[in-house]
Amino acid sequence: MRKFLLFSFITVFFFGCVPQKDVIYLQDIDISNAEKTFDNVKSENTIKVFDQIYIQVSSFDDGNINFMNNDPNRYGGGRSELDLAMVSYTVNKDGAVKLPIVGQTKVEGLTVDEASEKIRKELGDYLNTPSVKITFVNKSITVLGSVNRPGRYFYAAEYLSIFQALGLAGDISEYGNRKEVVIVRDSNHQVIRKKLNLTDIALLGEADLYVQPDDVIYVEPLKRRHWGFAAFPWAVVLSSITTVILVANYVKQ
């Protein structure tokens, strides 16, 4: 009987605990070196079909002549994400935006700097020394799976790391698998699925450290998730142990 009770306790303890190595980010095998430096690898985001971009144009012309003038008073002085979305341009299925007078302008596959320069040259025939600035509007990522606050999150930063993205969702839950984080991404009319191991410190030197707009991040659960403290069927186990004890005592009598 004692052996059975000891076995039951060990079993419950084993399934109820998550090893520390499964919940620590960016683990380093060489712990003797307290500081490490990694090259910061960033790939510049390019404009994709159905992206929303905000185009700001200025020139030496009078404001009344500048047909794309973005004077704050023109739009109520607002500059929130919602305000910008209302005056932004959506890249159509052909990868172009339709601008006043200029007409269709292909911007798909270009960085915002490249698209700005292209539009600036096209506006040169209509405006006096135009200056063009383009920014993405309503950039967002969607975080799903074993996180504390799954959902869609908007951000304005130029770059957003996978850790910052998970921070928006309240971090990975206790039973989330930090070695199996899936990224689903649209790229060049294809859907890419890749896995990241957030416990590997080498991730700091890879381009995959940064997410891209419209990425879907899915955190897979640990295999022992269903037997964790929160979900373990304590009532069933305790009831079974009590029943075994009662039956054993009855047999002894």
Automatic annotation (TrEMBL):
Domain of life of the organism encoding this protein: Bacteria
Ranges for domain Polysaccharide export protein N-terminal come to 41-135
Recorded hits in PROSITE patterns, A to Z, give: PROKAR_LIPOPROTEIN
The membrane spanning regions, by residue number, are 227-251
A GO MF term = polysaccharide transmembrane transporter activity
Spell out the InterPro entries in the cross-references.
Answer: Poly_export (IPR049712), Poly_export_N (IPR003715)
A Pfam family cross-referenced in the UniProt record is Poly_export
Q: Which UniProt keywords apply?
A: Membrane, Signal, Transmembrane, Transmembrane helix
Q: What is this protein called?
A: Polysaccharide export protein Wza
User: What organism is recorded for this protein?
Assistant: Saccharicrinis fermentans DSM 9555 = JCM 21142
